[in-house]
């Protein structure tokens, strides 16, 4: 047997266990049909939203609602939204809050997880129990609002970051991942004179790129999609993030954001087309970021959640 033949056989998928029956044609067809329906259930609404956002106003009026089959393409909704009005400002606000909020949350979460992963550190068990207790018991909305107000954070961008800056679940996932790193590596670095901060930056974090990418995506999606904090802590319309502007557009009996009312009333733009365009703009960052960290999902989540 040649070396190439042996190599090809070694690369083949492992044989099925003896207790598993070979897949039948009916079973494979059923599984494929079910997966196809799931994909259509996800892609069909997205297709309708995109097509409606790109459809001219006469087409939307003639159809009487959402457009399924394209009958002309126009980017007027997007040009109006991105022409420097409130929507453009809201996009910048959301991008800024997402970037700085994710950065702050990751710094706090990584430091907390690394400290809790050192089982011999001072107050380790007490701090761990205190953090886990917050997953089941919360102060409530009114005390939280009074705390934010007493700190003078209302009508500031910090109110969109600090009240929800840290997720205990994410800290526990990071802690589990850090505890899975071989202690021989950290001990050898400590013998060479490295401190905890240097060990974290030069050893622990480079070995934890997968879980860090996943947790960063979790935080970023949370900040980008958040709207509740802005609705209760902000009163200035110019400070609202994109999600709150989207709510203003899709709510009934609510005027469009400043700069779009005249175009809608004059018949130049379709209110439904604007709504769909804002929804597409809100989905673009998540659609770009998710595939970039998709390869880290399995390794990051399974390694961080299962030890041993």
Describe what this molecule looks like in 3D.
With 308 residues, the protein is an all-alpha fold. It has a single domain, classed as MetI-like fold (Orthogonal Bundle). The protein has helices spanning 3-11, 25-54, 57-63, 76-81, 86-117, 124-133, 141-150, 168-179, 183-191, 196-204, 209-225, 228-233, 242-250, 261-265, 271-305. The longest helix has 35 residues, at 271-305. The radius of gyration is 26 Å and the shape is globular. It starts with a helix and ends with a helix.
Question: What are the defining features of this structure?
Answer:
MetI-like fold; 308 residues; disordered C terminus; mainly alpha; 15 helices
State the domain count.
1
Question: What is the C-level CATH assignment?
Answer: Mainly Alpha
The counted number of beta strands is 0
Tell me, briefly, the overall form. globular
**Helix/strand class:** mainly alpha
Please bin the fraction of helical residues.
Answer: 55-70%
Q: Taking Cα atoms only, what radius of gyration do you get, to the nearest Å?
A: 26 Å
Low-confidence stretches: 304-308
The CATH architecture term is Orthogonal Bundle
Tell me what portion of residues adopts beta-strand conformation. under 5%
Mean pLDDT: 81
**Multimerization status:** single chain
CATH topology: MetI-like fold
**CATH superfamily, please?**
MetI-like
**Helical stretch tally:** 15
Biggest β-sheet, characterized? none
Order of helices and strands: HHHHHHHHHHHHHHH
Give the termini distance in whole angstroms: 39 Å
């Amino acid at each position: 047997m040649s070396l190439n033949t042996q190599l090809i056989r070694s690369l083949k998928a492992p044989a099925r266990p003896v207790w598993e029956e070979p897949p039948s044609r009916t079973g494979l067809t059923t599984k494929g049909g079910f997966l196809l329906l799931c994909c259509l259930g996800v892609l069909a609404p997205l297709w309708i939203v995109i097509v409606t956002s790109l459809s001219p106003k006469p087409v939307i009026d003639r159809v009487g609602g959402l457009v399924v089959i394209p009958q002309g393409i126009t980017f007027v909704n997007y040009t109006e939204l991105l022409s420097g009005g409130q929507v453009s400002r809201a996009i910048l606000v959301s991008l800024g809050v997402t970037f700085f909020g994710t950065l702050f949350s990751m710094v706090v979460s990584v430091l907390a997880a690394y400290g809790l992963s050192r089982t011999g550190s001072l107050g380790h068990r007490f701090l761990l129990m205190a953090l886990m207790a917050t997953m089941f018991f919360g102060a409530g909305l009114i005390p939280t609002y009074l705390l934010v107000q007493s700190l003078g954070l209302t009508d500031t961008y910090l109110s969109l970051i600090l009240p929800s800056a840290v997720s205990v679940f994410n800290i526990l996932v990071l802690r589990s991942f850090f505890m899975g790193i071989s202690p021989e590596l950290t001990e050898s670095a400590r013998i060479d004179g490295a401190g905890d901060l240097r060990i974290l930056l030069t050893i622990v974090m480079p070995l934890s790129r997968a879980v860090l990418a996943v947790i960063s995506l979790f935080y970023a999606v949370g900040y980008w999609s958040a709207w509740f904090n802005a609705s209760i802590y902000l009163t200035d319309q110019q400070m609202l993030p994109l999600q709150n502007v989207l709510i203003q557009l899709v709510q009934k009996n609510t005027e469009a954001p400043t700069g779009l009312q005249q175009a809608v009333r004059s018949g130049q733009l379709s209110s439904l087309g604007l709504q769909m365009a804002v929804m597409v703009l809100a989905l673009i960052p998540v659609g770009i970021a998710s595939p970039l960290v998709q390869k880290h999902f399995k390794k990051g989540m399974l390694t961080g959640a299962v030890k041993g």
